[in-house]
Amino acid sequence: MITLEKIRRRAENDAKSNGCYLNPDSEILKDLFEGLKRNEEHYGYNTCPCRLASGRFEYDRDILCPCDYRDTDVLEYGSCYCTLYVRKDVFEEQTPLSQIPERRPLHKQERAYEDAHIIKPKEQDVTNSIIKKDTPSIRLKYWYCKQCGYICYREEPPYLCPICKANRELFAEITQS
User: Fold this and answer.
1) Which of 79, 91, 153, 170 is most deeply buried (CB count within 10 A of its CB)?
2) Residue 96: pLDDT above 90?
3) What is the torsion angle, in degrees rounded to the nearest 10, for the CA atoms of residue 152, residue 157, residue 160 and residue 161?
4) Element (H or E) spanning 85, and its range?
5) End-to-end distance of the chain based on CA atoms, in angstroms?
6) Residues 6+ apart with CB under 8 A from 171
7) Domain boundaries, the chain
8) Which among 32, 104, 162, 73 has a CA at the least distance from the CA of 22?
9) May I ask the CATH class of domain 141-174?
């Protein structure tokens, strides 16, 4: 059973281990936790509470909370897109929250809008085989960080390396010869 307390602990642990803070506004924080809980119950995985998920895990990897865009947004704007995670100066209310532009590529947003109406949660495993015939598949690749060696398997490299915080440009695709 997914509880708000479990979601809170997960977010707090992630914030501490990544040098972030949680939004200091308790009402906003409560709403965000409820959105995460709803999404996890609905989709079976914890998608960002501020973005539309497709219901297909392979399409939604970039918006699993914390999303791929969080670290870059927090560094540049003081908070992530949904404002769950904030920088220290925002947490201490020295800097006001500002509007964060959407970094998620348009093709991924469109994919979510196209697929969201097709897939019913909990029926995902049964319908995925049918839907895959009608929708283009994504090509997952192995990527490694040239700076620290971190390896991931996904459509595109992350914006920032989760280990050493290197920019996306320092990732290279691993290919087989």
Assistant:
1) 79
2) yes
3) 20
4) strand 85-86
5) 45
6) 143, 144, 145, 146, 157, 158, 161
7) 4-134, 141-174
8) 32
9) mainly beta
